[in-house]
Amino acid sequence: MRRFYQNSWFGVAFSSFGELSFFHLAESRFYEQFYEALFRIYPSWDALPKSWRETKLVHAGWLAEQAHRQASGKNRPLRALSIGSGLGFIEYNFLRELPDTELHLSEPSTVGMDWIRPHIPPERVHIGAGADALPPDLRFDLIYLSAAEYFLRQEEFAALLAELRGRLEPDGRLIVLSASFLEAEGPIAALLNLGKVCIYALLHAGGVRRRQFWGWLRTREEYLDAVRKAGFTNTEEGRLDDASRTFWISGQNPAPGT
Description:
It contains six helices and eleven strands. By secondary structure, it is of the alpha/beta class.
Protein backbone atom coordinates (compact mmCIF):
# COMPACT_ATOMS: atom_id res chain seq x y z
CA MET A 1 0.00 0.00 0.00
CA ARG A 2 1.04 3.59 -0.56
CA ARG A 3 -0.32 6.82 0.87
CA PHE A 4 -1.70 9.43 -1.51
CA TYR A 5 -2.70 13.07 -1.13
CA GLN A 6 -5.19 15.54 -2.60
CA ASN A 7 -5.46 19.31 -2.55
CA SER A 8 -8.69 19.67 -4.53
CA TRP A 9 -11.65 17.74 -5.92
CA PHE A 10 -13.97 18.84 -8.75
CA GLY A 11 -12.01 22.08 -8.80
CA VAL A 12 -12.83 22.85 -5.16
CA ALA A 13 -9.58 23.74 -3.38
CA PHE A 14 -9.55 22.14 0.05
CA SER A 15 -7.64 25.10 1.48
CA SER A 16 -10.62 27.33 0.63
CA PHE A 17 -12.73 25.92 3.46
CA GLY A 18 -10.52 24.37 6.11
CA GLU A 19 -7.22 23.18 7.48
CA LEU A 20 -5.49 20.33 5.68
CA SER A 21 -3.68 17.51 7.46
CA PHE A 22 -0.72 15.73 5.92
CA PHE A 23 -0.83 12.92 8.48
CA HIS A 24 -4.52 12.36 9.34
CA LEU A 25 -7.42 11.35 7.13
CA ALA A 26 -10.20 13.85 6.51
CA GLU A 27 -13.01 13.65 9.06
CA SER A 28 -16.77 14.16 8.72
CA ARG A 29 -16.63 17.94 9.14
CA PHE A 30 -14.18 18.19 6.24
CA TYR A 31 -16.61 16.36 3.93
CA GLU A 32 -19.53 18.49 5.12
CA GLN A 33 -17.62 21.64 4.21
CA PHE A 34 -16.51 20.17 0.89
CA TYR A 35 -20.03 19.26 -0.22
CA GLU A 36 -21.33 22.66 0.87
CA ALA A 37 -18.71 24.26 -1.39
CA LEU A 38 -19.42 21.81 -4.22
CA PHE A 39 -23.16 22.47 -4.22
CA ARG A 40 -22.52 26.22 -4.37
CA ILE A 41 -20.59 25.72 -7.62
CA TYR A 42 -22.52 22.89 -9.30
CA PRO A 43 -26.35 22.89 -9.42
CA SER A 44 -26.69 19.27 -10.61
CA TRP A 45 -24.86 16.21 -11.93
CA ASP A 46 -25.08 17.63 -15.44
CA ALA A 47 -22.82 20.52 -14.45
CA LEU A 48 -19.99 18.25 -13.25
CA PRO A 49 -16.99 17.74 -15.56
CA LYS A 50 -17.90 15.79 -18.69
CA SER A 51 -14.93 13.41 -18.41
CA TRP A 52 -15.99 12.41 -14.87
CA ARG A 53 -19.59 11.83 -15.95
CA GLU A 54 -18.50 9.73 -18.94
CA THR A 55 -16.35 7.52 -16.71
CA LYS A 56 -19.13 7.02 -14.17
CA LEU A 57 -21.62 6.21 -16.94
CA VAL A 58 -19.33 3.38 -18.03
CA HIS A 59 -19.23 2.16 -14.42
CA ALA A 60 -23.01 2.33 -14.05
CA GLY A 61 -23.61 0.45 -17.28
CA TRP A 62 -21.10 -2.26 -16.41
CA LEU A 63 -22.54 -2.70 -12.91
CA ALA A 64 -26.01 -2.99 -14.42
CA GLU A 65 -24.70 -5.78 -16.68
CA GLN A 66 -23.29 -7.62 -13.65
CA ALA A 67 -26.57 -7.16 -11.78
CA HIS A 68 -28.53 -8.52 -14.72
CA ARG A 69 -26.27 -11.59 -14.75
CA GLN A 70 -26.73 -12.01 -11.00
CA ALA A 71 -30.53 -11.77 -11.38
CA SER A 72 -30.65 -14.63 -13.87
CA GLY A 73 -33.05 -17.36 -12.75
CA LYS A 74 -34.59 -15.37 -9.89
CA ASN A 75 -38.35 -14.94 -9.74
CA ARG A 76 -38.14 -11.66 -7.81
CA PRO A 77 -36.47 -8.28 -8.29
CA LEU A 78 -32.75 -8.19 -7.65
CA ARG A 79 -31.76 -6.58 -4.34
CA ALA A 80 -28.49 -4.60 -4.53
CA LEU A 81 -26.51 -2.41 -2.16
CA SER A 82 -24.13 0.45 -2.92
CA ILE A 83 -21.57 1.12 -0.19
CA GLY A 84 -20.33 4.71 -0.16
CA SER A 85 -22.53 6.01 -2.98
CA GLY A 86 -21.26 9.60 -2.70
CA LEU A 87 -23.05 11.94 -5.09
CA GLY A 88 -25.18 9.06 -6.37
CA PHE A 89 -24.53 9.53 -10.09
CA ILE A 90 -23.71 5.86 -10.64
CA GLU A 91 -26.78 4.79 -8.66
CA TYR A 92 -29.10 7.09 -10.61
CA ASN A 93 -27.87 5.72 -13.93
CA PHE A 94 -27.79 2.12 -12.66
CA LEU A 95 -31.52 2.46 -11.93
CA ARG A 96 -32.15 3.91 -15.38
CA GLU A 97 -30.73 0.66 -16.79
CA LEU A 98 -32.49 -1.64 -14.29
CA PRO A 99 -35.47 0.27 -12.85
CA ASP A 100 -36.95 -2.83 -11.18
CA THR A 101 -33.89 -3.38 -8.99
CA GLU A 102 -34.39 -2.86 -5.26
CA LEU A 103 -31.32 -0.66 -4.82
CA HIS A 104 -30.21 0.37 -1.33
CA LEU A 105 -27.57 2.97 -0.45
CA SER A 106 -25.27 3.02 2.56
CA GLU A 107 -23.47 6.29 3.37
CA PRO A 108 -21.66 7.52 6.51
CA SER A 109 -23.65 10.77 6.43
CA THR A 110 -26.27 12.61 4.38
CA VAL A 111 -24.12 15.60 3.38
CA GLY A 112 -23.49 14.57 -0.25
CA MET A 113 -26.87 13.04 -1.06
CA ASP A 114 -28.88 16.07 -2.16
CA TRP A 115 -29.15 14.98 -5.79
CA ILE A 116 -29.83 11.27 -5.34
CA ARG A 117 -32.35 11.39 -2.48
CA PRO A 118 -35.39 12.21 -4.70
CA HIS A 119 -34.73 9.03 -6.70
CA ILE A 120 -34.41 6.51 -3.84
CA PRO A 121 -37.20 5.56 -1.40
CA PRO A 122 -36.17 6.78 2.07
CA GLU A 123 -36.39 3.28 3.56
CA ARG A 124 -33.61 2.21 1.17
CA VAL A 125 -31.16 4.88 2.38
CA HIS A 126 -29.06 3.69 5.32
CA ILE A 127 -26.88 6.22 7.13
CA GLY A 128 -23.90 4.83 8.97
CA ALA A 129 -20.70 2.85 8.49
CA GLY A 130 -20.93 -0.32 6.42
CA ALA A 131 -23.04 -3.27 7.54
CA ASP A 132 -23.79 -1.68 10.91
CA ALA A 133 -26.10 0.79 9.17
CA LEU A 134 -28.35 -1.95 7.78
CA PRO A 135 -31.39 -3.65 9.30
CA PRO A 136 -30.24 -7.00 10.74
CA ASP A 137 -32.36 -9.21 8.48
CA LEU A 138 -31.58 -7.49 5.15
CA ARG A 139 -29.68 -9.60 2.58
CA PHE A 140 -28.54 -8.75 -0.95
CA ASP A 141 -27.86 -10.47 -4.24
CA LEU A 142 -25.20 -7.92 -5.18
CA ILE A 143 -23.11 -5.47 -3.15
CA TYR A 144 -20.70 -3.05 -4.78
CA LEU A 145 -18.18 -0.49 -3.60
CA SER A 146 -17.18 2.14 -6.16
CA ALA A 147 -14.14 4.20 -5.09
CA ALA A 148 -15.15 3.60 -1.49
CA GLU A 149 -12.21 1.63 -0.07
CA TYR A 150 -9.28 4.04 -0.38
CA PHE A 151 -9.53 5.42 3.17
CA LEU A 152 -9.30 1.98 4.82
CA ARG A 153 -6.14 0.26 5.97
CA GLN A 154 -5.68 -3.24 4.61
CA GLU A 155 -6.94 -5.03 7.71
CA GLU A 156 -9.94 -2.67 7.90
CA PHE A 157 -10.71 -3.28 4.23
CA ALA A 158 -10.67 -7.07 4.64
CA ALA A 159 -12.83 -6.78 7.79
CA LEU A 160 -15.41 -4.65 5.96
CA LEU A 161 -15.58 -7.13 3.09
CA ALA A 162 -16.12 -9.95 5.59
CA GLU A 163 -18.97 -8.01 7.22
CA LEU A 164 -20.54 -7.41 3.84
CA ARG A 165 -20.23 -11.07 2.87
CA GLY A 166 -22.47 -11.78 5.85
CA ARG A 167 -25.11 -9.57 4.21
CA LEU A 168 -25.11 -11.45 0.91
CA GLU A 169 -27.50 -14.18 -0.12
CA PRO A 170 -25.87 -17.56 -0.77
CA ASP A 171 -24.07 -17.23 -4.13
CA GLY A 172 -24.43 -13.44 -3.89
CA ARG A 173 -21.59 -11.40 -5.34
CA LEU A 174 -19.53 -8.47 -4.12
CA ILE A 175 -17.76 -6.10 -6.54
CA VAL A 176 -15.07 -3.52 -5.81
CA LEU A 177 -14.35 -0.80 -8.37
CA SER A 178 -11.03 0.82 -7.54
CA ALA A 179 -10.17 4.50 -7.94
CA SER A 180 -6.85 3.98 -6.15
CA PHE A 181 -5.14 1.15 -8.01
CA LEU A 182 -1.37 0.88 -7.65
CA GLU A 183 0.71 -0.89 -10.27
CA ALA A 184 3.26 -3.26 -8.78
CA GLU A 185 6.57 -1.45 -8.34
CA GLY A 186 10.15 -2.36 -7.56
CA PRO A 187 12.39 -1.04 -4.77
CA ILE A 188 13.73 1.85 -6.85
CA ALA A 189 10.23 3.16 -7.63
CA ALA A 190 9.27 2.78 -3.96
CA LEU A 191 12.36 4.75 -2.90
CA LEU A 192 11.59 7.51 -5.41
CA ASN A 193 8.05 7.73 -4.09
CA LEU A 194 9.34 8.03 -0.53
CA GLY A 195 11.51 10.95 -1.61
CA LYS A 196 8.52 12.59 -3.30
CA VAL A 197 6.42 12.22 -0.15
CA CYS A 198 9.21 13.83 1.90
CA ILE A 199 9.22 16.80 -0.48
CA TYR A 200 5.42 17.04 -0.22
CA ALA A 201 5.73 17.04 3.58
CA LEU A 202 8.29 19.87 3.53
CA LEU A 203 6.15 21.95 1.17
CA HIS A 204 3.10 21.31 3.34
CA ALA A 205 4.94 22.31 6.52
CA GLY A 206 6.21 25.46 4.82
CA GLY A 207 2.72 26.40 3.65
CA VAL A 208 3.85 26.41 0.01
CA ARG A 209 1.45 23.74 -1.22
CA ARG A 210 -0.63 22.12 1.45
CA ARG A 211 -2.12 18.66 0.82
CA GLN A 212 -4.70 16.49 2.55
CA PHE A 213 -3.84 12.87 3.34
CA TRP A 214 -6.57 11.15 1.32
CA GLY A 215 -5.98 7.43 1.71
CA TRP A 216 -4.07 4.45 0.37
CA LEU A 217 -3.31 3.03 -3.06
CA ARG A 218 -3.42 -0.78 -3.39
CA THR A 219 -1.91 -3.30 -5.74
CA ARG A 220 -3.79 -6.12 -7.44
CA GLU A 221 -2.29 -8.56 -4.95
CA GLU A 222 -3.57 -6.50 -2.00
CA TYR A 223 -7.09 -6.37 -3.42
CA LEU A 224 -7.02 -10.10 -4.06
CA ASP A 225 -5.67 -10.79 -0.56
CA ALA A 226 -8.47 -8.77 1.08
CA VAL A 227 -11.20 -10.47 -0.95
CA ARG A 228 -9.88 -13.94 -0.14
CA LYS A 229 -9.33 -13.18 3.55
CA ALA A 230 -12.95 -12.05 3.73
CA GLY A 231 -14.02 -15.56 2.66
CA PHE A 232 -15.08 -14.94 -0.93
CA THR A 233 -14.64 -17.61 -3.60
CA ASN A 234 -14.81 -17.68 -7.42
CA THR A 235 -12.93 -14.38 -7.63
CA GLU A 236 -12.87 -12.48 -10.90
CA GLU A 237 -11.01 -9.34 -11.92
CA GLY A 238 -10.44 -7.11 -14.91
CA ARG A 239 -10.34 -3.62 -16.33
CA LEU A 240 -13.23 -1.47 -17.50
CA ASP A 241 -13.30 0.21 -20.89
CA ASP A 242 -13.14 3.76 -19.54
CA ALA A 243 -10.49 6.47 -19.81
CA SER A 244 -8.68 5.21 -16.70
CA ARG A 245 -8.99 1.47 -17.42
CA THR A 246 -10.49 1.11 -13.95
CA PHE A 247 -9.50 -2.06 -12.11
CA TRP A 248 -12.29 -4.19 -10.64
CA ILE A 249 -12.37 -7.33 -8.55
CA SER A 250 -15.28 -9.45 -7.37
CA GLY A 251 -15.96 -12.51 -5.25
CA GLN A 252 -18.86 -14.82 -4.52
CA ASN A 253 -20.39 -15.66 -1.17
CA PRO A 254 -20.16 -19.46 -1.09
CA ALA A 255 -23.41 -21.32 -0.66
CA PRO A 256 -23.71 -23.42 2.53
CA GLY A 257 -21.99 -26.76 2.20
CA THR A 258 -19.70 -25.70 -0.66
